[in-house]
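Bench notes, afternoon.
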Amino acid sequence: MWRHGASGNRNIPDAIIDFLPDATLVIDRDGRLIAWNNAMEQLTGVPAASLLGKGDYEYAIPFYGKRRPILANLVFLPEAELQEKYDTIERTGDTLVVDIFIPDFRQRGVYLWAKASPLYDPQGNVIGAIETVRDITDRKQAEQEMAKTSRELEEIIDFLPDATLVIDREGRVIAWNNAMEELTGVPAASMLGKGDYEYAIPFYGKRRPILVNLVSLPEAELQEKYDTIERIGDTLVVDTFIPDFRPGGIYLWAKASPLYDPEGKVSGAIETVRDITARKRAEQEIIRSQRSLADIISFLPDATLAIDREGRVITWNKAMEELTGIPAASMIGKGDYEYALPFYNDRRPMLANLVLTPQADVEKLYTSVKREGDTLVVDTFIKNLRGRGGRYFWAKASPLYDPQGKITGAIETIRDITERREMEGKLARSDAELQIAAEIQKSFLPDVIPRIGGFDIAARTVMAKEVGGDFYDVIPFEVMTLEKGLLGLLVADVSGKGVPAALFMALSRIVVRVNALWHHDPAKAIFDANNIITADSQSGMFVTLFFGTLREADRTLTYVNAGHNAPIVYRGRDGSLEELLPTGIVLGAAENRAYGSRSIPIDRDDIVVMYTDGVTESINAQEEMFGEERLRDIIRNNARRTPGEILEQILAGVRAFTGDMPQFDDITLLIIKGT
């Protein structure tokens, strides 16, 4: 006999060690092994007989492959020395707890939780140490088990997660663990040492024998105490309902076994109790649900069938009747793949059959297969279903389970997705056409901007969708020999979005470019372009436009602003800003409207920023617009940079302002800087 820990004087029989579900060993004061329980044999594969009595750390070899101190040897080491042995260690009183990974234990290593405490004789002298080891590899690797939250207990019995009590031969309580305190609300201090069935009062409200008192009774007497009881050797297992324990009653699972002393005499008994109310309620709910399952399945809009474990039809709903033309009455109870005949005109496994045979090669029967746990999802094409030609179907199948978790059959849902597939094909073709339109639109934008003496120019368009209505153009007039050192610059924004706007953009670009090359005066070019666009615009679309000619000889920009956002001019000499306001109406609104031309000088370090409203009307999450003032600040703060760098700063500023908000409108920028 020994006493464990410093928190109480509780005599614990040797037999408790073998009752523990965790691998447990005990060493004496000289480090010789005196206990190596069944769970330890299973964990290490080493029988107790080959290790009992051994010392010199031989019991470490099954874990580490060499002799070395284990946790049970270290319980009295100071904190500093302990940290050298384990990365993480916790000391609670004289008890040590660690989690450790042993890479060479088994093929891929194993994570172990270990707890060790000294053992004391009745006089308080240390006589050895006890260590409990638990394989927590699955929890560590899957990270799915809940963290163990119960406090680290000093008594061996308190290692157990289930509510547990131990009585001696006279029926007095010698252990009442923390989980039992939580289950009953009765602290151990008020229960230890009590007999005369007082430990039954928290459960039944009166003194009466409980399972732990009945382990020695014959079968006939046991049946009088519990409706259902199972005996496994000398261990009893029951499920029971206690109506007066908590409001609404409680379902408990209990397991009890006798405890033996070293001479094999019964010295007491141990009982473990688990609250299974939630599981029982769930089982009852499943049973109730199963009663109405046929009605629920019949109500489903998708064609659904269910088969039992032998492959016989147990459910064939109304939607399945409509899909196949086969009434449920003629299909229920049929097996031998008869339910496949309406689909394939052949007896062959359906998807529901394949979930019952995990080794089945589903991919040989279906071209598109997706596995979601034990559920299969497929798309398939059936050539001829009831004379309606080929049809596409989506099907999903899952196994069915009974309350004990055993597979009882499978259910399959089938949906005709032919129309969806046809629509997907149309969308794919539409996407392809849209990509072609986008490529054509990109081809309209200049590959390079011709150089002109005394100026540096950068331009960019960022579409909100594949195609849009913004565009810019650079027209090298010297190609038409109008004048050398003369460059046409154009920024425009078409009303509307998408393909219609892109088509109107293409028309507008061509018309403006032709007229710009034909007329030396920008006002005349835009006048004629407006008349042509207005005559061809039957949809009410229009285009705002800024067009100017940049002349190298006198460093001037002569421009027309047709209802477009006023470009911002930064003057390098004093940092002032000005706007190039409209000189006429938008193109496409009305014919024969006059446009005026204006000229401004562009000196060294002067900057002209042409832009579309996609810049200033960008919106953030608070529905605030970017606005002209933020644009002006960026221009001022980056005036010493090149046009390309200024352009990038503006785009970066818009992105930072809008954050995660989507881009709603195209953005176009064209920037000139005097050099």
